[in-house]
Design goal:
This is ABC transporter ATP-binding protein. InterPro entries: AAA+_ATPase, ABC_transporter-like_ATP-bd, ABC_transporter-like_CS, P-loop_NTPase, Siderophore_ABC-ATPase. It is a peripheral membrane protein. One of its GO terms (molecular function) is ATP binding. Keywords: ATP-binding, Cell membrane, Ion transport, Iron, Iron transport, Membrane, Nucleotide-binding, Transport. With 259 residues, this protein is an alpha/beta fold. The protein has a single domain, classed as P-loop containing nucleotide triphosphate hydrolases (Rossmann fold, 3-Layer(aba) Sandwich). The protein is 33% helix and 29% strand. The strands form 3 sheets. It has a 6-stranded mixed beta sheet, with helices on both faces. A 4-stranded antiparallel beta sheet has the order 2-1-4-5, with helices on one face. Strand 7, helix 6 and strand 8 form a beta-alpha-beta unit. Helix 4 runs antiparallel to helix 5 and helix 5 runs parallel beside helix 6. It starts with a strand and ends with a strand. The mean pLDDT is 92.
Length: 259
């Protein structure tokens, strides 16, 4: 689906991401984890072309992403940041409709096919009954679903999510991640997301990439990556790992700061 090949990203003279490589297959859910300041969000922004990379390349379906126009990238890939804001009077359906504009010429209006896709996105995110509400009047979880609906209306093959559960309480975190899983399973959309919660990453990911100080520390399936050694080395925490036979995914119990 896409390949990141030895990319490096600098802010002024500071190196933030160094010689980073990985690939994501179609239909996978991949999570990027690591301590604060390790470069996770910068890596995602580089992949989406929101920040330039100093060296290396990203290939999207075999094509160097630098050779694609912004519209061509937007038809294939959509990124949602940690916190998104809409004008105070914007309704949910108006927001979701913006997802269709990468598929239109600048003078074209939305047609019936576009609106059918908008309503499909609202239905998939369980927002049909909220379509006329303003985004600003919604709860954090509802608002995040509205932005995901806009991304769905864009019909991307790849969805990039930068800490999608930040600022949300526990129930809304669960709601958003369950929605991501549902969309992945029903539509086959590839998902790459930055997560802080290790148990969320273990539960919702096919593969996990660990970032430390701008470099790839390790990657693999949740049961390969989520080890007491990794957590001690990367997070400086002692932990216990529990496996539940019915889930086949590890559960992480943090114990104390490692000495």
């Amino acid at each position: 689906m896409f390949t990141v090949d030895s990319i490096s990203i600098r802010y002024e003279q500071k190196s933030v991401i160094r010689d980073f490589s990985f690939s994501v297959n179609q239909g996978e859910v991949v999570s990027i984890i690591g301590p604060n300041g390790s470069g996770k969000s910068t890596l995602l922004k580089g992949i989406s072309r929101n920040v330039p990379f100093h060296s290396g390349q990203v290939e999207l379906e075999g094509t160097n992403i630098k050779s694609l126009s912004s519209k061509q990238v937007a038809r294939k890939m959509c990124m949602l940041s940690q916190k998104n804001q809409a004008p105070s009077d914007m309704t949910v359906i108006d927001l979701v409709s913006y997802g269709r504009y990468p598929h239109k010429k600048w003078f074209e209006k939305l047609n019936q096919e576009d609106m059918d896709i908008v309503h499909w996105a609202l239905e998939k995110t369980h927002l049909t009954s909220h379509k006329d509400r303003t985004v600003s009047s919604m709860s954090g979880g509802e608002s995040q679903r509205a932005w995901i609906a806009m991304a769905l209306a864009q019909r991307p093959k790849i969805l990039l999510l930068d800490e999608p559960t930040t600022y949300l309480d526990i129930s809304h975190q669960y709601e958003v991640l369950e929605l991501v899983r549902e969309l992945n399973q029903e539509t086959g959309m590839t998902v790459l997301m930055v997560l802080h919660d290790l148990n969320h990453a273990a539960s919702y990911s096919d593969n996990i990439i660990v970032v430390q100080a701008g470099e790839k520390a390790m990657s693999g399936k949740p049961n390969e990556v989520m080890t007491t050694d990794m957590i001690r080395r990367i997070y400086r925490m002692d932990s216990e790992i529990q496996y539940v036979a019915t889930e086949k995914k590890p559960r992480i119990h943090l114990l104390s700061t490692a000495r």
